[in-house]
Amino acid sequence: MKDVLKAVLLHSTRRWLRRQPRNVLCTVSWDFDLFRRTTPIDPHWGGKRGQIIDRYYIEKFLAEHSSDICGHVLEFGDDTYAKQFGGAKVSKIDVMHLVPGNPHATIIAELANCDEVPSDTFDCILCTQVLLLVFDLKNAIRSLFRILKPGGVLLLTAPGIQKISRGDMEIGGEYWRFTTLSMRRLFEEVFPPNGVEVRNYGNVLAATAFLHGLSVEDLPPKALEYTDPDFPVSIALRAVKPISPMRADP
Amino acid sequence: MGLENIVRAILPTAAKPWLRRQRLVAARLLRRVGVNPGQSLLRRTTPINPIDYGESRGQCIDRYYIENFLAAHAKDVRGHVLDFADDNYARKFGGNKTTKIDVLDLSPSNEQATIIADLANGDNIPSDRFDSVLCTQVLHCIFDVEAAIRTLYRILKPGGVLLVTDACIQKVDSVDLQNGEEFWRFTSLGLRRMFEKVFPGDQLEVHSYGNVLVAIAALHGLAVEDLTRTSLDVVDQDFEVLITLRAVKPLVGETTEVLAIANSASHLGD
After folding, report:
1. pTM score, two decimals?
2. Residue B186, in any domain of the structure
3. What 3-state class would DSSP assign to A114?
4. Cβ of A212 and B212 within 8 Å?
5. Is B83 a domain residue?
6. Residues 8-27, chain A: which have Cβ within 8 Å of B?
7. For the ranges A38-52, A76-90, B6-20, B145-159, which has the lowest average pLDDT?
8. Nearest to B216 among A208, A223, A226 (CB)
9. CA trace torsion B134, B138, B143, B146 (10° rounding)
10. How far apart are CA B93 and CA B165, in angstroms?
């Protein structure tokens, strides 16, 4: 019987059917629970269950702007995104990290105070989920501008709604959540405003699931696509350093 | 969803009302065992209450923590008090300990306001004026928060007390966003670090309140009445729904060093 079904049903239908018991059971039991429980369903970020919810947005943003990721690229923490989205367009990757001990890191520095990194160095900087860990935002943004090559592109993401990351809190501290407004204002003080694009991702379901440590796979398909400006789970920014310094002052 | 559409296309129109009735019966049964299909928190991409922060259903969740905090520090609310936007909290928690109440607002259209000023460059507010400043849910609306904190320090009398609250996990107010008044959510550490630059750090008291249930209820615009007191009082440090801070301006001569630092910082800011 099972074999007959297997032969008749399309692969996608089989996969859909296999997910249904889990979907129904989880949704019903979680629903029952969600108005009562004061602890998250999963105390981690959802990485063990599937794709982490903010990563879905971050990767969507980077995929849309993958043409910017080329040449000499700077990333933070590790080089995953530079490799994944830059591919063969990338000629060199540097990885910045705050504290020594990270095997991927080629630069150990604090972004707000990284005078040892030469100016006009990078064609592209991937600064995902970093700014929330920086106390001195203005100097960090000035550094990002300084170390970009003229014409270079900064692709940056930061959270609007997120729980505290205990690990980061214990290393260097975690300070902020942003809105599209603060993000634009912060960067327009350093980058020419016509080269700054800001957008937000997320809705109340994405926020709820993210806080509970659920993953993209736990949610109905397309649930993350709807964008509600009241619930900015992730905020993404693209900024370009002008080619001629004259254009820096509009 | 796909399945539902197929069924809808195949079934004759006459069967549709019957199906709808069955669905209602099923929903009623589910509700009886505690599952609310219409409000499934893991299906709906819109908040249960989209219109406000819970005021339309009862007490706003933020206000529960804010008022608990102010009640616990009611002895600090005395003498000449500064409140923001209206004088409700100064009256409620100051009672007859207050001698004078001033209300600060950015907008001149606020009739209750006695001081119209932008806290970030409040040069028109006199120095060493207030015994107590109640700065609740204000700082996230100010872009240059550090300048605002320097103003708060300056306008407090020596020995005066500042009571601050603000949010970390909270939805964004689209109206405020359009008006250019919705900038930040702070973590308790972020707030502490900023205040330590101006106020003496050893006298700062910072606490966070909330847990994942409260965070989600607040995002959905639910009210205190939708939750139990027990669940509101569970504190999970990873879910900072509300942050409270109490700071004291040192008496003259007590810590001149801090004053000097604060003054030099304010000059740098200019």
Report:
1. 0.84
2. yes
3. coil
4. yes
5. yes
6. 27
7. B6-20
8. A208
9. 20
10. 15
Structural domains counted in chain B: 2
User: In this structure, what token pair is assigned to residue A43?
Assistant: 């105390």
Q: Per residue of chain A (250 residues), what is the pLDDT tens digit? A: 667 766 777 777 777 766 666 666 665 566 667 778 899 989 899 999 999 999 999 999 999 999 999 999 999 999 999 999 999 999 999 999 998 999 999 999 999 999 999 999 999 999 999 999 999 999 999 999 999 999 999 999 999 999 999 988 988 899 999 999 999 999 999 999 999 999 999 999 999 999 999 999 988 888 999 999 999 999 999 999 999 765 444 4
Residue with tokens 């599952």: B35
Q: Do residues B16 and B139 both lie within one domain?
A: no
CA distance B206 to B108: 32
Residues B27 and B59 in one domain: no
Residues B62 and B17 in one domain: no
Q: What is the DSSP string of B223-260?
A: BGGGS-HHHHT---TT--SEEEEEEEPPPTTT-HHHHH
Domain membership of residue B233 as a residue range: 52-269
Q: Which residues of B touch A162 (CB under 8 A)?
A: 169
Beta bridge partners of A237: A156, A198
Alpha-carbon gap: B268 to the closest alpha carbon of chain A (Å): 14
Q: Cα-flanking dihedrals φ and ψ of residue A46, to 5°?
A: 105, -5
Token duo for residue B268 = 């740098």
Residue of A nearest to B192 (CA): A175
Give backbone dihedrals phi and psi of A93, rounded to 5 degrees, phi first. -125, 130
Q: Could you give the CA distance from residue A198 to residue A57 in angstroms, rounded to a whole number?
A: 14
> Is the distance from CB of A204 to CB of B219 less than 8 angstroms?
yes
Shared domain check, B73 and B14: no
Closest CA to B216 of B30, B31, B42, B35: B42
B233 and B129 inside one domain: yes
Pairing of strands B130-136, B79-84: parallel
Tokens of A188: 């327009």
pLDDT, residue A78, reads: 95
Tokens 């609250």 — which residue? B165
Decide if A125 contacts A117 (C-beta within 8 A): no
Phi then psi dihedrals of residue B166, to 5 deg:
-160, 175
Indicate if B104 and B29 belong to the same structural domain. no
Q: Domains of chain A, with CATH numbers?
A: 1-38 (no CATH), 42-248 (3.40.50.150)
